[in-house]
From TrEMBL:
The lineage of its organism: Eukaryota, Viridiplantae, Streptophyta, Embryophyta, Tracheophyta. One of its GO terms (cellular component) is nucleus. One of its GO terms (biological process) is tRNA methylation. It comes from Setaria viridis. This is SAM-dependent MTase RsmB/NOP-type domain-containing protein. It is found in: Nucleus. GO terms for molecular function: tRNA (cytidine-5-)-methyltransferase activity; tRNA binding. The active site is at C362 (nucleophile). Belongs to the class I-like SAM-binding methyltransferase superfamily. RsmB/NOP family. S-adenosyl-L-methionine binds at C216, A217, A218, P219, G220, S221, K222, D248, D309. InterPro entries: MeTrfase_RsmB-F_NOP2_cat (IPR049560), MeTrfase_RsmB-F_NOP2_dom (IPR001678), Pre-PUA_NSUN2 (IPR057285), PUA_NSUN2 (IPR057286), RCMT (IPR023267), RCMT_NCL1 (IPR023270), RsmB/NOL1/NOP2-like_CS (IPR018314), SAM-dependent_MTases_sf (IPR029063). Keywords: Methyltransferase, Nucleus, RNA-binding, S-adenosyl-L-methionine, Transferase, tRNA processing, tRNA-binding. Residues 98-523 form the SAM-dependent MTase RsmB/NOP-type domain. Pfam families: Methyltr_RsmB-F, Pre-PUA_NSUN2, PUA_NSUN2.
Length: 849
């Protein structure tokens, strides 16, 4: 992917980011109010305390080794227990089992990338190899069916392991399986991701032509899943019409997102770096009606699907062994509520009419969940509905959203905003309550909402759902139910929105983490006041930089100021473990900087060498509106494109003109291929004065080389883009037997005379020097059928003076060697190894890439 910054600096930034991490919210305040005491006393009498576990038991629970000097962290937090008991997050009969699951290590899970070339090999290895061998080796320890597909994930693509990631790392019996998982995730064939985190993209109901916005995307596990979905049914050489725009505010996490999604080698992805709540419009049209004037051209950014996986307190990930037990306090959720509302409101504004938006958090807290959804429904009125998706993914056990909850602030509990003391009213917001009665818009838009009671039974195995139907929304979407039997209060206020259509996944239902998901459907364009509430950007005119039209909602303005510093201290989800890392990344200082375009200076370590290169063929200089991010430029040098096309015999049916982009400072060293959907966005962005801050896009297709071999084409192919281009290449192709292909992969550089098949060696020797493609012959009838076969294995090589040299990264080479071993059982003998290495050394021909 074409990135705005060099990935080399990623590690440094990650480390630096980790040192800056702070937790959400402040310290827990002293509780002095009588109200708080009453609640606690009442709770004590109603619900017995759950048993405290002893340190050795805790150590055993986390799977840690017993070290006499080491004190395991206590897996308990009284404030957490009190909070969720009051919220009645589960029935009181379930409380102990709920808590006991929170203290157990989380089972490891992963997903197979069905769009990857080796998908079938991987499925077969899992089913026929690991599943069976581990069944016999570890069933005593981890029970039967220790590796099995998750029943609710379509196509058996997601797998559950009866052991945690820690056990996977430590248990010798699991070593080869662990190596397999590590390696396959490195090359993008599988993604290690928490089971519940895989749920939100499934409810988006993605089609291969959808434009999808992932608003808070880093580290990218859901973005990767969305990419898998849009690429699943593609034919070789054909790109889907879809597009994924993955955004994250945090620059370091954006780098991680780029790194992780790079494994997908997709031309249909754009990574941007914005505050999601201020995500630009890129509108050429003055108003909504104009946006549809020209059907052939995008007039504004609009998405068929929006994933709004917002920053959250993250207490649903408590089983991952985070510091969550120690750090948790109810302020964490309160501080994020407004940001979550603002991000989701922006998502709705960017959603097409008829489109779907999924709102999700890995938090259990109703203030971050149901309260946000209620506020969205309140603000958007009849323009948006909360969908009943109880018939989708029927095997996934989930519970209905809560219809009532309370808000805690500094130890005091409140049922309505009226109860909040004056000096806290701008911190504890009306929208946090089920009884919110705030916005002007909400008065205007709340209407008659029909609640479908037919499907409620399938929502929950364990919860009773209040009988409600055809509720007439009053002005604030609230009803008071004094007969309700919520602990510790006499007046229970229920939201009248059909919040039971939201979904909450709790750990003890299917041995997972916790998650919250709500699916929204846009029914009609937003009206003026609703749009204003989403802080839309307005267009000043073609080619001019747009101004951020800041008109925050009156009711949120005071709190925004207070929250500015706190919002960004987000406790990150542990999906960054994807790469086996556990960095602590913070989003510090991004909010205001982003608006003013004063981002941290970015390092391009290639820039210098690029500029110094002799014979620069392009003089590309252009200032970006985004400091540190170079503009994306279309590569327009017709002579160069012509020479590439003729050198590789690229067929006319594969358009290069208008689909190759580069960065200005890159001096066209690397060219990236973009899909038609991405091309349209880049063109629109150019027209609106680069409102989008594009961090990376497309798949690397060509790279300039500096070989003195006398090659007539200045560019070589990149392995990342090869599978897309392969069906359209007609020259510079050699076909190798499995044995010679294996040798090439193993030794990287082979003298023409040392190939087993002398015909192959001769063909290589007779080729002009330069970049070429070597295809593995697997009994195909003709060349055309090989190149169009999605399972064909091919690599990029360099035909040097006397040798053939492989130009594939080490992880990809290892991956291909694995495939060779699996498909053909080929493994070179040690003796053979030595001989070939000696010969290559004698020739002095080892080429470093
Ligand atoms: C829950 S994580 C997203 C996880 C991601 N969807 C995945 O599946 O890998 C939330 C992300 O939101 C980002 N974030 C925080 N505040 C943001 C904002 N105002 N706009 C956009 N992203 C934000 C954080 O940097 C973090 O990466």
């Amino acid at each position: 992917m074409l990135a705005a910054r060099s990935p080399v600096s990623l590690h440094h930034r990650i480390v630096a980011g980790g040192q800056r991490r702070r937790c959400v919210g402040g310290s827990e305040r002293k509780r002095g109010r009588t109200q708080g005491r009453h609640f606690t006393q009442a709770l004590e009498s109603l619900w017995r305390q759950s048993p405290r576990i002893s340190p050795p038991a805790a150590a055993a629970a986390t799977g840690g080794e017993v070290n006499p000097l080491w004190q395991p962290p206590a897996l308990e937090n009284a404030a957490f227990e009190e909070y969720y008991k009051v919220q009645q997050i589960v029935h009181k009969e379930e409380w102990d089992v709920f808590m006991s699951f929170l203290r157990k290590p989380l089972p490891a899970t992963f997903r197979i990338n069905a769009s990857c070339q080796f998908y079938k090999d991987i499925c077969s290895k899992l089913e026929n190899d690991f599943r069976q061998s581990l069944e016999s080796e570890v069933s005593n320890e981890y029970g039967e069916d220790a590796i099995r597909p998750l029943p609710w994930y379509p196509g058996n693509l997601a797998w559950h392991l009866n052991f945690s990631r820690k056990e996977l790392r430590k248990n010798l019996a699991l070593e080869s399986f662990h190596e397999f998982l590590k390696h396959e995730s490195e090359v993008g064939n599988i993604t290690r991701q928490e089971a519940v985190s895989m749920v939100p993209p499934l409810f988006l109901n993605v089609h291969p032509d959808h434009h999808i916005l992932d608003m808070c995307a880093a580290p990218g596990s859901k973005t990767f899943q969305l990419l898998e979905m849009i690429h699943q049914s593609k034919e070789p050489g054909l790109l889907p019409g879809a597009l994924v725009m993955a955004n994250d505010l945090n620059v370091q996490r954006c780098d991680l997102l780029i790194h992780n999604t790079k494994r997908m080698c997709t031309a249909n992805l754009i990574v941007t770096n914005h505050e999601a709540q201020n995500f630009p419009n890129c509108s050429l049209a003055k108003d909504y009606s104009e946006a549809y004037k020209d059907n052939c051209k995008s007039q504004r950014l609009e998405f068929d699907r929006v994933l709004c996986d917002v920053p959250c307190s993250g207490d649903g990930t408590i089983r991952k062994g985070h510091d969550m037990w120690r750090k948790w306090n109810s302020g964490m959720g309160n501080q994020l509520h407004l940001l979550q509302v603002n991000i989701a409101m922006r998502g709705i504004a960017l959603l097409k009419v008829g489109g779907r938006m999924v709102y999700s958090t890995c938090s259990m807290n109703p203030v971050e969940n149901e309260a946000v959804i209620a506020e969205l429904l309140r603000r958007n009125g009849n323009s948006v509905e909360l969908l009943d998706v109880s018939s989708e993914l029927p095997e996934l056990v989930r519970r209905p959203g809560l219809s009532t909850w309370k808000v805690q602030d500094r130890g005091s509990w409140f049922q309505t905003h009226d109860d909040v003391p004056h000096d806290r009213k701008n911190v504890v917001l009306p929208s946090m309550f089920p009884s919110s009665n705030i916005t002007e818009e909400s008065h205007a838009v709340c209407g008659y909402v029909e609640i479908n009671t037919d499907n409620r039974g399938s929502f929950s195995r364990n919860c009773d759902i209040e009988e409600t139907s055809n509720i007439n929304h009053d002005m604030d979407g609230v009803s008071t139910d004094p007969t309700s039997n919520l602990d510790c209060t006499s007046n229970v206020v229920n939201s009248k929105f059909p919040l039971h259509r939201c979904m909450r996944i709790v750990p003890h239902d299917q041995n997972s983490g916790a998650f919250f998901i709500a699916v929204l459907h846009k029914l009609s364009p937003l009206n003026g006041s609703q749009i204003q509430g989403t802080k839309v950007q307005h267009t000043l005119g073609k080619g001019r930089i747009k101004q951020l039209h800041k008109e925050p909602e009156p009711e949120t303005r005071p709190c925004e100021t207070i929250l500015t510093c706190q919002q960004n201290n987000v406790l990150e989800v542990d999906d960054a473990e994807l790469l086996g890392r556990r960095q602590n990344l913070s989003a510090d200082n991004q909010t205001s900087k982003d608006k003013n375009s004063t981002e941290v200076e970015m390092v391009f370590n290639d820039v210098k060498s690029g500029r110094e290169e002799s014979g620069d063929i392009m003089k590309l200089q252009k200032q970006s509106r985004w400091k540190g991010v170079d503009p994306v430029l279309f590569f327009k040098d017709e002579l160069v494109i012509k020479s590439i096309k003729s050198f590789f015999g690229i067929k006319e049916s594969f358009p290069l003109e208008g689909y190759l982009v580069t960065r200005s400072t890159d001096n066209a060293r690397r060219m990236y291929y973009i899909s038609k959907s991405v091309k349209e966005i880049v063109e629109l962005n150019e027209e609106v004065g680069e409102q989008l801050k594009i961090a990376s896009l497309g798949v690397k297709m060509f790279e300039r080389h500096r070989s003195k071999d006398g090659c007539s084409c200045a560019y070589r192919l990149s392995y990342e883009g090869l599978s897309l281009l392969l069906p359209y290449i007609s020259t510079r192709i050699l076909y190798a037997s499995p044995l010679d292909f294996h040798r090439l992969l193993q030794y990287r550089t082979i003298n023409f005379a040392h190939f087993v098949d002398s015909r192959f060696g001769e063909e290589a020797a007779s080729m002009m020097p330069g970049c070429c493609v070597v295809v593995l012959l697997e009994g195909h009838e003709n060349a055309d059928s090989i190149l169009k076969d999605p399972t064909t294995i091919a690599i990029v090589c360099w035909r040097g003076k006397g040798t053939m040299n492989v130009m594939v990264s080490p992880p990809d080479r290892t991956d291909l060697l694995e495939r060779m071993a699996y498909r053909f059982g080929i493994k070179a003998s040690a003796e053979e190894d030595e001989k070939l290495m000696d010969l290559t050394r004698e020739d002095g021909n080892i080429m470093r890439i």
